[in-house]
């Protein structure tokens, strides 16, 4: 143990070590030589105690230690400080009279007793392990055994050899002090071995125990130096206790606080009783064998019999221990299984984080405690598409990645849980609105980073609903508000967070009622289709129509599609609604072909949502519908948005499958979404519909006009047809015609109309004189 290696030079410690060696050498030489000035060997004792007090004081002030440990070393320093005065008093006892004496005065004995009591208090105030009544009974028995053995040994080897009647240097009180020190040694040992020592360094406490024990054992030297008054047992006991205390204090200071240790196995085999019995029987044989006779034979017989009984008991204990080890192993496996079950009850099996049950318990506990917090509900946008496209295993890996990123980015006091599916929730205590937004900003930036999963480059997007707790809240109410806010974030485009507002509840209630009505709208024949003509420029001949859905509500009248279409997308009804629209459009187109032949519209456009494209089997469903209606696929144009096709590979594959069936593909609202020109190459587009937002600025020197002019060149190069949407004036129509557009759609030509009104346009031209006049210029 190199306590001073690789450390700065420690003068106080070196001084203590040097004084200890000096006193030890002085005492050893003094056994055979009478010093002319024996007091020189005693003078280092108070200095050693002072140096030890200093070491304990340094340890007691160490900021790395806990309060309990610092208190122990402070009290030990007080005890060592008392020994400074005790050693000076002892020197005065030895050399203050006419002759040198080994006797201790009452003053010195009181100082020693006070120091011992301080040490006892310090030891007893250390934290203890939890013990059962059986443990304490065994502890009492072991303590009695050790105390009795120590007393017998001390009596036999030391006290019994002192003649107090004739000795002027040794008194019974001195022997009592020695025995008190021995008791301290015993209590120190028992404290370490049985009761625990908190975060006190156990190595340091072992050093202290050894020092006290060695100091007490110096009492056996008393008979050997009875005729040498210039020597005393305390001349060895003092340096021994002080040096070991110095070593222990340095070890504690440099090692820092020890970890809390668990109590030892109560069934651990104890050698203390057997060792005590063996020692006493050894002393007995030592006393009786030299005498011989019947007493010696009886001592040998009893010793042998006891040895056999002990061996038999040890054998039985060993068998019992093996049996108990087997039981313990089974119990440990059972505990591990129970722990696993407990973990499964409160944790998500896929991600390993808390599940809904654990989250509800945690939030209920915090609500009961009145602690304010913020709850954020996270939902992955279009997660179903990832599962359908790449498989559920890929989706699971993505969820695990999201979970890991959340755990790594959150603070230690935050809680994350998976509620199920692709929903996660965060519990964020101690944050105001600004702190919450700062955390969410960093969180979304981290979580939404692209991730490579089994060769697929995925860019997760997350919508977050946020709400703060209220005193009257329940776990269900907090989650409900966060859910409402999360869907509001999705309505705004996703990939963002939204705070809950009471207005959202009103909108949610309205959406819920309207959604319930929408579910019945098809069955109650409240939905119908209208058709807006697509005309050919410049003369305005009918080139096709676009089928548009309308809803006539029994209470609210005509509800704009801008309200109920997004509602259907949010609540999942868009698939059923889209299926009904496509069926009606196909049957209407087939009827026009049967009744009007060549005069029927060449193209009928129908909108298909992203959710429909991602539905498994959608192309096959379209093929079956066209076959049942007997309609040529080339008559039908499927309109998709660029956002829908860019979302996942599933939608793009579905579009390609529809094109392979013979349907024409129109890219609707081009330029308003992610506007990837590469999509025009990857997607089999026949018609490109230029959004109204660009057409509005076509008659001015605006960036929109530049884009309109550029797009016509792109469509020509890619052999596509361009349709300008939202044409509202003759000037716009003329400008588009001059730019090269040959097809247009908008209120300038016709509003959406019932199929009966569309039939009036079949086979004819509806000229627009103002358009023709402007076009001739």
From TrEMBL:
Transmembrane segments in this chain: where? 12-33, 39-60, 72-92, 104-124, 136-155, 175-197, 204-225
Q: Which UniProt keywords apply?
A: Membrane, Transmembrane, Transmembrane helix
Q: Which InterPro entries match?
A: Cyclic-di-GMP_PDE-like (IPR050706), EAL_dom (IPR001633), EAL_sf (IPR035919), GGDEF_dom (IPR000160), Nucleotide_cyclase (IPR029787), Rev_trsase/Diguanyl_cyclase (IPR043128)
Report which superkingdom the organism of origin falls in: Bacteria
An MF annotation (GO) of this entry:
cyclic-guanylate-specific phosphodiesterase activity
Q: Does the keyword Membrane apply?
A: yes
What are the GGDEF domain coordinates in residue numbering?
Answer: 371-502
User: Which Gene3D superfamilies does UniProt cross-reference here?
Assistant: 3.30.70.270, EAL domain
Query: Which segments constitute the EAL domain?
Result: 511-766
Extract the NCBIfam families matched here: GGDEF (TIGR00254)
Q: What is this protein called?
A: Diguanylate cyclase (GGDEF)-like protein
Source species: Actinoplanes lutulentus
């Amino acid at each position: 143990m190199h306590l001073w290696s690789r450390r700065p030079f420690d003068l106080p410690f070196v001084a203590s070590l040097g004084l200890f060696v000096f006193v030890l050498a002085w005492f050893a030489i003094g056994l055979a030589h009478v010093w002319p000035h024996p007091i020189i060997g005693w003078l280092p004792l108070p200095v050693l105690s002072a140096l030890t007090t200093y070491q304990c004081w340094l340890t007691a002030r160490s900021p790395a230690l806990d309060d309990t440990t610092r208190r122990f070393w402070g009290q030990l320093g007080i005890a060592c400080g008392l020994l400074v005065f005790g050693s000076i008093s002892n020197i005065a006892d030895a050399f203050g009279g006419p002759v040198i004496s080994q006797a201790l005065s009452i003053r010195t004995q009181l100082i020693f007793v006070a120091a011992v009591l301080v040490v006892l208090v310090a030891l007893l105030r250390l934290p203890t392990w939890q013990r059962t009544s059986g443990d304490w009974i065994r502890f009492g028995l072991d303590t009695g055994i050790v105390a009795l053995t120590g007393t017998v040994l001390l009596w036999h080897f030391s006290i019994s050899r002192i003649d107090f009647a004739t000795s002027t240097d040794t008194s019974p009180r001195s022997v009592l002090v020695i025995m008190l020190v021995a008791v301290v040694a015993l209590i120190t040992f028992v404290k370490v071995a049985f009761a625990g020592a908190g975060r006190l360094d156990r190595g340091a406490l072992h050093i202290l125990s050894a020092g006290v024990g060695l100091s007490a054992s110096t009492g056996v030297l008393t008979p050997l130096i009875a005729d040498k008054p210039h020597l005393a047992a305390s001349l060895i006991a003092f340096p021994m206790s002080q040096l070991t205390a110095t070593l222990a204090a340095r070890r504690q200071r440099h090692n820092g606080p020890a970890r809390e240790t668990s109590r030892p196995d109560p069934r651990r085999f104890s050698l203390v009783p057997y060792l005590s019995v063996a020692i006493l029987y050894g002393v007995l044989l030592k006393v009786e064998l030299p005498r011989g006779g019947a007493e010696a034979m009886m001592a040998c017989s009893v010793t042998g019999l006891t040895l056999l009984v002990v061996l038999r008991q040890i054998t039985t204990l060993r068998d019992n221990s093996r049996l108990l080890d087997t039981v313990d192993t089974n119990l440990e496996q059972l505990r591990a299984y129970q722990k696993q079950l407990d973990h499964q009850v409160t944790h998500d099996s896929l991600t390993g984080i808390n599940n809904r049950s654990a989250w509800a318990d945690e939030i209920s506990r915090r609500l009961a405690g009145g602690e304010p917090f913020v709850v954020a509900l996270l939902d992955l946008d279009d997660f179903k598409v990832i599962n359908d496209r790449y498989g559920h295993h890929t989706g699971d890996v993505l969820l695990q990645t999201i979970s890991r990123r959340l755990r790594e980015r959150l603070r230690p006091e935050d809680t994350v849980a998976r509620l199920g599916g692709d929903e996660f929730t965060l519990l964020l205590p101690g944050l105001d609105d600004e702190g919450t937004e700062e955390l969410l900003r960093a969180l979304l930036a981290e979580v939404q980073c692209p991730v490579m999963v089994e060769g697929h480059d995925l860019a997760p997007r997350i919508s977050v609903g946020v709400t703060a707790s209220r005193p009257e809240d329940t776990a269900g109410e907090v989650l409900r508000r966060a859910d409402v806010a999360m869907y509001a974030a999705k309505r705004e485009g996703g990939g963002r967070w939204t705070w809950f507002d009471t207005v959202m509840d009103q909108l949610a209630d309205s959406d819920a009622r309207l959604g319930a009505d929408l579910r019945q709208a098809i069955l109650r024949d409240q939905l119908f289709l209208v058709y807006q003509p697509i005309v050919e420029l410049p003369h305005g001949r009918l080139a096709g129509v676009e089928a548009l859905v309308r809803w006539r509500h029994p209470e609210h009248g005509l509800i704009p599609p801008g309200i109920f279409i997004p509602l259907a997308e949010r609540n999942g009804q868009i698939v059923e609604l889209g299926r009904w629209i496509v069926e009606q459009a196909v049957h209407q187109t087939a009827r026009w072909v049967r009744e009007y032949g060549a005069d029927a519209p060449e193209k009928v456009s129908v909108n298909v949502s992203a959710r429909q494209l991602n539905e498994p089997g959608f192309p096959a469903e379209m093929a079956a519908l066209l076959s049942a209606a007997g309609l040529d696929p080339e008559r039908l144009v499927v309109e998709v948005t660029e956002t829908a096709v860019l979302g996942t590979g599933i939608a793009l594959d579905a579009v390609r499958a529809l094109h392979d069936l013979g349907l024409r593909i129109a890219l609707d609202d081009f330029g308003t979404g992610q506007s990837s020109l590469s999509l025009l190459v990857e997607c089999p587009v026949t018609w490109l519909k230029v959004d109204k937002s660009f057409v509005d600025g076509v008659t001015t020197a605006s960036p929109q006009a530049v884009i309109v002019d550029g797009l016509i060149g792109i469509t020509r190069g890619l052999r596509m047809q361009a349709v300008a949407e939202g044409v509202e004036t003759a000037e716009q129509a003329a400008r588009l015609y001059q730019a090269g557009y040959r097809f247009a759609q908008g209120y300038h030509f016709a509003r959406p109309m019932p199929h009966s009104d569309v039939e009036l346009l079949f086979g004819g031209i509806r000229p627009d004189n103002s358009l023709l006049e402007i076009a001739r210029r």
